[in-house]
Design a protein that fits this description.
mainly alpha, Four Helix Bundle (Hemerythrin (Met), subunit A), elongated, disordered N terminus
Length: 174
Amino acid sequence: MIEGIYMIRGLNMEKGLENTGGDLNFYKGLLQDFFETYSNHTEKILGFVSQGDYKNAELEAHSLKGTSQMLGLEKIYDVALKMELSLREKDNEKFECLVHPLSNELKALLYDFKNSDLFLQNNELHLSLKLNEQEKNRLLDRLNELLPIVKAGRYQAEVIVVQLLKKYADSCLK
């Protein structure tokens, strides 16, 4: 269930949550909106460049850069920043070198996003704390699997572990 959380490469969830007020459901919604808006953004930028419209291409790269930074999509941010600068300078050689990395990163991130248990529509079902004995053992096993990831500094796992434990503690106090 929660193993999909740390499988989103290029996502600094801790930073994204911090930038968006710490509300996980709100953050997930913003990420879903991001993918609906930007999944084909490379083609949109290429369209402007092919028409010689560097100003709008630069604005699109700028938009992608700002949104990805806010959400903690670090690799996308890095490439979008370089792309924005290359478009501002009308440097086609630099721009062309960035098209495939941006497109590939967006595709990989979208794939990981779609396959992450964190982003299933009915996450209450998967994060329910009304667990039978088998589910409790399974949750403990999952948490133990996350421990090396947390220790290695993969903070998105840490954020989810903390939230799960808080919800568990809150439910036990009722």
